[in-house]
Amino acid sequence: MVRVAIDVLLKDEILDPQGQAIERALPQLGFEGVRDVRVGKHVELDLPDGDDLDERVHAMADQLLANPVIETFTYRVLGEGEGREGHDAR
Amino acid sequence: MVRVAIDVLLKDEILDPQGQAIERALPQLGFEGVRDVRVGKHVELDLPDGDDLDERVHAMADQLLANPVIETFTYRVLGEGEGREGHDAR
Question: For a disulfide at B40, which of A1, A35, A73, B9, Cβ 3.0-4.6 Å?
Fold first, then answer.
């Protein structure tokens, strides 16, 4: 099994109101100079390894995880200590 | 400026119904053997570089992007060709 992280974002040409809201809120919290905030979905999952991993991840994303009309995605295979097990808020 | 990706996930002990829904839907689409699906938020943003980058990202996440009671986050600095510019659905 490999653990894969898939990140789904709205395409650049699609308005991202959630990103804009964060961008407007940050200066009020004292964080200046933050630009171009985009918000999307992060999915982590275990799936069987294999030569067709890339193909399967693309198919899953196209069919279920992302809306290809308005969204794009990237994915990466997580290493040891990354992802769920490695999550730590501090 | 550096581009940072922040991934927010529910803590392991918190039930993730969206992840469960995806895990149940995948076999019906022909994707067998997918386990431990977790769904969260993916945020990308540009912010000024500096020695206190780590501190600022943690503060932003704790104050605005994640709910520390039920969520954890990880972040990474995106390199050239990663992130928004590198997003491509195929």
Answer: B9
